[in-house]
Amino acid sequence: MSKDIRMVADVSHLAPFDKDGALAEAADRVNQLSRRGLFRGAGALAGGALLFGTVPETAFGQTPKGDVAILNYALTLEYLEAAFYEEANAGGAVTGRTKLFSETAGEHEDTHVTALKKALGSAAIKKPSFDFQGTTEALGTFQQTAILLEDTGVKAYQGAAPDIKTPEILRAAISIHPVEARHAAWIRNIVGEPPAPDAFNPAADMATILAAVKGTNFISTANSASGGSSVSGTPSVTG
What's this model's pTM, rounded to 2 decimal places? Predict the structure, then answer.
């Protein structure tokens, strides 16, 4: 047995706290797993990309249309965030702690895009065209816009999760949600704002989020995630 597996399975030192034997039983189940199975399970918990990869193609072919719409909705938001960070990282205005945040968040959003596109296959909507109108060219504006976008992502995943019918897709989606929340907390901390300003976080439904995204005017051309018409306009972020 490998060192890593022993660390998981050996709970003898916890015996005084394991009055009903629950920990020992769980450890015994772990010991019955193959090394390959254990690490496959651990890998599935590592991120949304792997979790989406666990959805069988045959099962996804039978996915409710509502779930497909939600995934495309999520993909629209991930396209937006990924493009925003890509533009910022290509410029020179984002520096210091904010640069590390932008590079890390950008990598995460790229990974989310890849995972969602893989899950959707031919049903995935195309990447829209974006025009951020200079919001990535000044440090302060970038920071406030990042807060706005990350908050939007958090509310979107939180609002959509209860409507997802496919368990595998739900597990994958809620693995992305806390990452968006951590992004929001991180950039807030950088600018000196409370990382978690409220005890409860409000959710928002798809219609509300899409209206808010349209209101930023960052998407210059797109296929609507809800199947409506394209949107266009001049970017304007008010906070």
Answer: 0.72
